[in-house]
Specification:
Strand order of the largest sheet: 7-6-5-4-3-2-1-8
Radius of gyration: 17 Å
Number of domains: 1
CATH superfamily: Alanine racemase
Oligomer: single chain
Number of strands: 8
Bound molecules: pyridoxal-5'-phosphate
CATH class: Alpha Beta
Order of helices and strands: HEHEHEHEHEHEHEHEH
Largest sheet: 8 strands, parallel
Length: 234
């Protein structure tokens, strides 16, 4: 019994749009990971998505994410932390997140890295991270500015216990999404000179994921297109 009768058809529809957009630019649909953003959604909805075969979920607030991760421990849910992160929460986020998409400053690295050898209970594996880039003219919504990207990437590359997957961005309001995604792709080419295996691009939300696929997105972060409208917007 589903509390959300439209969930499955919406998911199907988005899945086929993704596949169609991928094929239209000669990409394999399977090369694109869809992260379903479940922020402000109840755990029951995440359970329904698990029943529908989905595993990758995105959350942007530590409190909510940690509660959901704890409630769904033992399932094959994978948690992607996509929100602005406080340095003093980084270590706690590492405990449940499979991927952090919002590493945007040096002060987060220590908390996200594996504990040093002399610390107890070091059974955490490698954490996958994206460095978030702010392409906007109005700063403050998260992300490192392009001019500071290289030095942050060098620090991340030198840290133990974290693996850089690539770059992440949210298309700024004042910019054509496709232009923003093309810019991120260019910046990623520069990053690969330092970290050759950092080939992933986390970009594309409900309103602009087709543009993102065309520019090479490997990780889409989709909320409302799949879950319907959020009660509160965040
Ligand atoms: C909320 C959010 C999303 C999903 O937004 P939708 O427009 O609902 O798809 C993606 N990325 C980030 C960083 C978010 O905060």
């Amino acid at each position: 019994m589903s509390s959300e009768p439209e969930l499955s058809p919406r998911l199907q529809s988005v899945r086929s749009q993704i596949a169609e957009a991928a094929r239209a630019c000669d990409r394999e649909p399977s090369s694109i990971t869809t992260i379903i953003v479940t922020k402000f959604q109840p755990i029951s909805l995440v359970r329904e998505l698990l029943d529908l075969g989905e595993h990758d979920f995105g959350e942007n607030r530590h409190q909510e994410a940690s509660e959901k991760a704890a409630a769904l421990a033992g399932t094959d849910a994978r948690w992607h932390f996509i929100g602005q992160l406080q340095s003093n929460k980084a270590k706690a986020v590492r405990a449940y997140a499979s991927v952090v998409h919002s590493l945007d400053r040096e002060s987060l690295i220590a908390g996200l890295s594996a504990p040093a050898h002399d610390e107890p209970t070091n059974d955490l594996g490698t954490l996958d991270v994206f460095v978030q880039v702010d392409l906007g003219t109005e700063l403050g919504r998260g992300g490192v500015v392009p001019a500071a990207l290289d030095s942050l990437v060098e620090r991340v590359a030198a840290a133990s216990g974290i693996r850089l997957l690539g770059l992440m961005t949210v298309a700024p309001l004042e910019m054509e999404p496709r232009r923003a995604f093309a810019r991120l792709r260019e910046l990623a080419e520069g990053v690969r000179r330092t970290v050759p295996e950092a080939i992933s691009l986390s970009m594309g939300m409900s309103g602009d994921f087709i543009d993102a696929i065309q520019e090479g997105a490997t990780h889409l972060r989709l909320g409302s297109a799949i879950t319907g409208n959020r009660a509160v917007n965040g």
